[in-house]
Amino acid sequence: MARTKGDHEARRRDVSEAVWQVMATRGFSGLTLRAVADQLRATTGLLTHYFPNKRALVTYALDLLEERTASRPRRPAGEGIEALRAALLDMLPLTEETTSTNRIWVSSWDQALSDPDLTDAYARKYAQSRATLRDRVAAAQELGDLPPGDPEHIAAGVQSFVLGLVVQALFAPSAFTPSRQIELLEEHLAAIAVPRPLEDPH
Amino acid sequence: MARTKGDHEARRRDVSEAVWQVMATRGFSGLTLRAVADQLRATTGLLTHYFPNKRALVTYALDLLEERTASRPRRPAGEGIEALRAALLDMLPLTEETTSTNRIWVSSWDQALSDPDLTDAYARKYAQSRATLRDRVAAAQELGDLPPGDPEHIAAGVQSFVLGLVVQALFAPSAFTPSRQIELLEEHLAAIAVPRPLEDPH
Question: Which InterPro entries match (chains A, B) (predicted)?
Fold first, then answer.
């Protein structure tokens, strides 16, 4: 029986899912053709049709991570500080799905830092994310939800806070439950929402 | 000529330095017996005397990271919020040495998240670091440098902020220069130092 386009697509989806599962449980250091083959209950021979080598597998995995992150469901943005809060909540590992995605991102940093092109690509990605946050900070300032101050700076601050919280929650999910993560984020937003007193000249 | 204890110690130091250099430039994903041997201009055969397998090399590397972190020079603590600031500045990649250490820590997260025992060990390590920060937060509250509030919570917040800033600075050192990192940290400390207004009941 001839193989149809549908078969081919279904097989590609299976391969993607297997790559994802391996990354979510073993990280990039555990991402091998053998591990993906085992997850698929297939032979490594079959996989070399998709990935001629380890590098092709890693590139595919990074693209898959990007694609799933871009297409994840997002909270409705709302206005002012609500829109900023929504963007930050979307980044936290509050569900099984977002925990997997974050775990894979963190695990990819080792690879990303050891390859100059990837380091640049990651730096651009984070700069892009910071630009989105900056726009939301500026909109919140317009509405008076946030005090004046360089929105680029404030965005860099909240991005740092959330990234670090992601890392802590991945290592200690019982200490950083979803409700505690949200509480910590709320306190951070409350802190930056308070107008800073004028500098004491002394 | 018989080899002396001094030779042996000197060789151990060379091996440690080679392992460190490989981790700092290639991360844990690039840490192989071959890479360490190349760095040492030695044979992998010689290295198997020190590391019978990859796992032994990784364990050694993690111990070395821990040891170098524990023995790093630290800023004098000072009192109140100064002591908190000093602890946080000690964590940032502000010099070549602390950039390497941080880069190796971040790179080790992939390994650490894929091994449950290591995940627990890392969670304990971060909890320990949080406990130190909590004590400094509490001391700063005693002196009136920080407003009241759960010191454990405030410590978790500053730890998240600094960890995320470390990651950003590693990916984009030109955007997150040492002076910008310090500026962002100062703004964060200023934000948490401001007393929060009473909750609006509405």
Answer: BetI_C, DNA-bd_HTH_TetR-type_CS, Homeodomain-like_sf, HTH-type_TetR-like_transc_reg, HTH_TetR, Tet_transcr_reg_TetR-rel_C_sf
Q: Encode pLDDT of B125-136 as tens digits.
A: 999 999 999 999
Cβ–Cβ < 8 Å for B57, B36 = yes
Helices assigned H by DSSP within chain A: 5-26, 33-40, 44-48, 54-70, 81-91, 96-113, 116-142, 151-171, 178-193
Selection from B104, B107, B98, B16 nearest residue B64 by Cα:
B16
DSSP letter assigned to residue B30: G
Measured torsion, CA atoms of residues B118, B53, B56, B95, in degrees rounded to the nearest 10: -90
Q: In chain A, which residue's Cα lies nearest the Cα of B174? A: A123
Nearest CA in chain A to B114: A26
Which of B167, B180, B182, B194 should be substituted to probe chain A, the one whose Cβ sees the most A Cβ atoms within 10 Å? B167
ipTM (interface predicted TM): 0.90
Q: Answer yes or no: do A110 and B191 touch at CB < 8 A.
A: no
Residues of B in contact with A29 (CB under 8 A): 28-29, 110-111, 114
- Residue B109: how many CA atoms within 13 Å on its side-chain side? 30
Candidates B58, B69, B156, B70; CA nearest to B108 is: B58
Q: Which fold has domain A5-68?
A: Arc Repressor Mutant, subunit A (1.10.10)
Q: Does B106 touch chain A (CB under 8 A)?
A: yes
The third-level CATH classification (topology) of the domain covering B75-193 is Tetracycline Repressor; domain 2 (1.10.357)
Angstrom distance (rounded) from CA B31 to CA B28: 5
pLDDT (tens digit per residue) in A30-81:
999 999 999 999 999 988 888 998 889 988 999 999 999 988 888 888 899 9
A contact residues 129-188, partner B, Cβ 8 Å cutoff: 153, 156-157, 159-168, 170-172, 175-176, 183-184, 187-188
Q: Per-residue pLDDT for B201 more than 60?
A: no
How far does A32 lie from chain B, in Å, by closest CA? 12
Q: In CATH terms, are B5-68 and B75-193 the same topology?
A: no
- pLDDT at position B196 is 58
Q: How far is B52 from chain A (nearest CA, A)?
A: 20
Q: How many CB pairs under 8 A join A and B?
A: 151
Mean pLDDT of A162-185: 97
Q: Per-residue pLDDT tens for B176-197?
A: 999 999 999 999 999 898 765 5
